[in-house]
Task: inverse folding
């Protein structure tokens, strides 16, 4: 309800602000004018370029909030007589590095976007933990997902146990994961926090006793018979329970120094669990690579995209690089979007709209918001294109040249 009320209160003023940021419509030339819309400023009306289409999050997520945005977007699409594109926001996270590349390039078109397909995508946030094989724009096969809670949720819960109460009370927001990272970070003038990645699988699964007497087990490492230790899945609920037990047992005796050690150990164990499944996936894909790739000795996957709110964690970036290097995957390039684009944001939805629009896709005006919506075409709902309401039109290309947009039909 709070989220819905916030959407209702802020969405319309935000659109007014966005309209005033649209490029100015060019002056009339030879009696021809480009499509434009009048936008009111403080003292006058100004002609601005009309958008080529409206891009909006259709799912997955909370239906009340999604529906508010979708209905607003439909209204704009009808009023301006432009196409509507309802976007899967998990697909948008996977494509965010391509947005970053386009913003950093002087020109952008469908031929040189980076990373090129295929690549691996690790989506890590407060609501999702997925390892995805991104094969094409609308084909993202889920290789591993969480069986209980998401990694961001687990870290937030651990933070509420570990952080001193005065730290939580002084926080300006409830981004507890970020607070935990800041709390665990070494002082700028200190010796630093060195991470030594496990060289072997056995070393990775072994407990590492702390100087305080406690130790955290790697997720799935100590299941009966050990059968799940190599399962392509993520699990973080056990880690959260272990942290809660340690904090309860130590009670008020837990010093700040011990809390810092526990914060670092929580992140190490959680992030190594992510890295272990990445390595398993790379090993599996190496065994199924194409004949051409096998003949040249190269892997078809050369890039790992890490996106979502947890991707802004600096320790994750350092740890994942070290883990892959020591396991023989130093050639895998890691792409982390800038922190402002790691969490859910409008820019990634707009960019995914561009890519889908260029591919010839539009959404029917009768489409509905979707609480659940997989990105995997093999899922029960058929993945991105399995949702009802897609219309396939002629492919188009939008070129971003020095901040301007040029459109070309194919």
Result:
């Amino acid at each position: 309800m709070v989220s819905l009320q916030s959407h209702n209160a802020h969405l319309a003023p935000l659109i007014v602000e966005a309209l005033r940021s649209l490029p100015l419509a060019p002056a009339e030339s030879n009696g021809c004018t480009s499509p434009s819309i009048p936008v009111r400023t403080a003292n006058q009306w100004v002609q601005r370029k009309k958008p080529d289409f409206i891009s909006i999050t259709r799912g997955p997520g909370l239906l009340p909030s999604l529906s508010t945005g979708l209905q607003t977007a439909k209204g704009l699409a009808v009023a301006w007589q432009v196409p509507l594109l309802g976007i899967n926001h998990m697909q948008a996270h996977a494509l965010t590095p391509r947005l970053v590349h386009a913003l950093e390039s002087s020109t952008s078109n469908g031929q040189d976007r980076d990373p090129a397909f295929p690549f691996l995508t690790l989506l890590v946030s407060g609501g999702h933990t997925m390892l995805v094989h991104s094969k094409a724009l609308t084909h993202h096969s889920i290789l591993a997902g969480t069986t209980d809670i998401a990694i961001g949720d687990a870290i937030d819960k651990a933070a509420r146990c570990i952080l001193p109460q005065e730290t939580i009370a002084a926080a300006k927001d409830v981004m507890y994961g970020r607070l935990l990272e800041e709390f665990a970070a070494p002082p700028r003038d200190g010796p630093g926090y060195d991470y030594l990645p496990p060289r072997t699988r056995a070393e990775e699964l072994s407990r590492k006793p702390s100087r305080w007497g406690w130790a955290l087990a790697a997720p799935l490492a100590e299941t009966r018979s050990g059968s799940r230790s190599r399962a392509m899945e993520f699990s973080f609920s056990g880690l959260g329970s272990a942290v809660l037990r340690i904090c309860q047992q130590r009670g008020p005796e837990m010093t700040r120094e011990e809390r810092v050690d526990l914060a670092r150990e929580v992140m190490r164990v959680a992030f190594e669990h992510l890295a272990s499944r990445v390595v398993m996936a790379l090993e599996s894909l190496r065994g199924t690579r194409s004949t051409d790739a096998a003949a040249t000795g190269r892997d078809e996957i050369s890039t790992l995209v890490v996106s979502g709110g947890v991707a802004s964690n600096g320790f994750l970036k350092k740890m994942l690089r070290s883990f892959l290097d020591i396991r023989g995957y130093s050639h895998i390039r890691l792409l982390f979007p800038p922190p402002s684009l790691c969490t859910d944001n409008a820019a990634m939805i707009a960019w995914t709209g561009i890519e889908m629009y260029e591919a010839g896709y539009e959404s029917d005006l009768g489409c509905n918001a979707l609480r659940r919506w997989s990105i995997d075409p093999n899922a029960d709902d058929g993945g991105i294109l399995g949702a009802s309401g897609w219309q396939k039109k002629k492919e188009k290309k939008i070129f971003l040249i020095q901040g301007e947009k040029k459109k070309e039909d194919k």
Remarks:
- The mean pLDDT is 87.
- DSSP finds 13 helices and 13 strands in the chain.
